Amino acid sequence: MATLEIRDLHVSVDVENGTKEILKGVDLTVKQGETHAIMGPNGSGKSTLAYSIAGHPKYTITSGTVTLDGEDVLEMSVDERARAGMFLAMQYPVEVPGVSVSNFLRTSATALRGEAPKLRTWVKEVKSAMEQLQMDPTFAERNVNEGFSGGEKKRHEILQMELMKPKIAILDETDSGLDVDALRQVSDGVNRVRGTGEVGTLLITHYTRILRYIKPDFVHVFSAGRIVESGGPELADQLEAEGYEKYTKGGAAA
Amino acid sequence: MAEAQTNIPVGSTTSGSLAVAAESTVATRMSAPPSFDVADFPVPHGREEEWRFTPLARLRGLHDGTAEAGGVLTVRVDAPEGVTVETVDRSDARLGKAGTPVDRVAAQAYSAFEKASVVSVPKETVLTEPIRVSVHGEGGTAYGHQVFELGAFAEAVVVIDHTGDGVLAANVDYVLGDGAKLTVVSVQDWADKAVHVAQHNALVGRDASFKSVVVTFGGDLVRLHPRVSYAGPGGEAELFGLYFTDKGQHQEHRLLVDHNVPHCKSNVAYKGALQGQDAHAVWIGDVLIQAAAEGTDSYEMNRNLVLTDGARVDSVPNLEIETGEIAGAGHASATGRFDDEQLFYLQSRGIPEDEARRLVVRGFFAELVQQIGVDDVEARLLAKIDAELEASV
């Protein structure tokens, strides 16, 4: 069973005059089949956690470890992390002009699976995944994320999650900017992947709304660069009722 | 894209002034007026506007009269039935009709060539197969002149391949009769040491369409000067270009679209990728809309993708408008580095870095390649772009 272990993770970014520490000692274990929600106010470092685990060059790991089944994730290149089974659904997916969605998906699948998927089964696989997300077939011929609406970008991210079948999926604010219908479609997609029991999900969100559709096993409150409280789904209900005030007043002010 | 630079206007905008029409800065920036005689041009020293980006020392004497003809250059023309291919001498009246040399090397080429080739497509002849021209150098200096003429309502595609080694200076004339349609693809796939300097002159007839696709990969120094003027209203010109400038190469494309008659269109789009130390690409895009050219619709664009440190791009769009009565005129130039966010996105989907770069660069060129409209040329170009990236540092 795949396990992602984050231990005492400290991460900095370069700022105008020097560096700024964003993550200040994060500890978290996510196992295959589990769903963890990380909730916190804006600027608490939630997205930094996501991008650091994925290996974005902007972030410098100053100490701590991230391992997937004991393998050192931080030693891996960005693409090696993906091939090891990590997936990041981005809050702001990047436009890649001139590269069609179908070409992109197939190139990605080829890299992840170690061989080009057989064309006939692949076409069916993509088609049915797109239908389930209620994506128009013409979508495949558009350039990656170019001119996509907010909802299309998120659906495209979840389409990739469905096709790539990661061991650990990090969803960075996948719910932001979605209307209720799109939120439901995206959540259904995530739940289909979770339903296999083969993915550990780290759901990063500012709002409790998405947790009505994707039920977490664990909820963590993130504030000022670390997890300040962990609990079960009831913690989300408490946040819904009380907001983040309790946490930001105490720890984050420091 | 990072470090994007857009819209650097160098030309001036005026309207309705008769005095200005004769004083075009596009024309006056040149050191001498156009002429067929090399003696009318002083030997450039390198600070002239038209030479300031070009490393004269690498022109192998084309600019100062020391490059003597004597090289081996084979020109082969494979033309479908109905096309006339002739080799003519200097006195042939059809030479030099589309334009006059505007710099010393073009004039040198005109003054020095011995035989010219004239390829004619009779009026109303619509070719279904391209005319294929192979220009192959085997060392030494050569001067050339080629003419392609299309009669009224004729349609043709010409693919010119430049390969091998040598030093070539040439003028190429394209003369389009009324309503004719010509697509020319000129591929510069020279060996590493080749030098190629050429002026391309297109004279676009009334309601005729001219499409030029210039593709430059090889050579030590390539400097091409595609120019378009119109013989009557309703003409259209599309000038597309792709270049892939590697370590140490100098690739220069200077364009002029002279809107000299009313109601013509032009669209210029050049894209280049650069990699390696001292890779140098130069793009000069001159568009002149003369006072008489009311109803002109014109756009020019240059994009550069710098893949590594050590490469240099000079991109200068000049748009000069002498009448306010136009349909549209615009220009854009942007030079950016490889976008790390795109790379991160693709890599985060398991795609290895080199393949991700290949995808992005193919994507960068794809839109332009798709506009060529000649299938086998498109496929070849994409393969060539891949090969360039394979060789990348």
Automatic annotation (TrEMBL), chain A:
Listed GO MF terms: ATP binding; ATP hydrolysis activity
Keyword Heme: no
Residues covered by the ABC transporter domain: 4-249
Database matches in CDD domains: ABC_FeS_Assembly (cd03217)
Key word NADP present: no
SMART domains from the UniProt entry: AAA
Domain of life, source organism: Bacteria
Pfam families registered for this protein in UniProt: ABC_tran
Entry keyword set: ATP-binding, Nucleotide-binding
NCBIfam families: sufC (TIGR01978)
Similarity comment text for this entry: Belongs to the ABC transporter superfamily. Ycf16 family.
Protein name according to UniProt: Fe-S cluster assembly ATP-binding protein
Taxonomic source organism: Streptomyces candidus
Automatic annotation (TrEMBL), chain B:
Coiled-coil region: none
BP terms from Gene Ontology: iron-sulfur cluster assembly
Chain segments annotated as transmembrane: none
Ranges for domain SUF system FeS cluster assembly SufBD core: 138-364
Pfam family, one: SUFBD_core
Similarity comment text for this entry: Belongs to the iron-sulfur cluster assembly SufBD family.
Protein name: Fe-S cluster assembly protein SufD
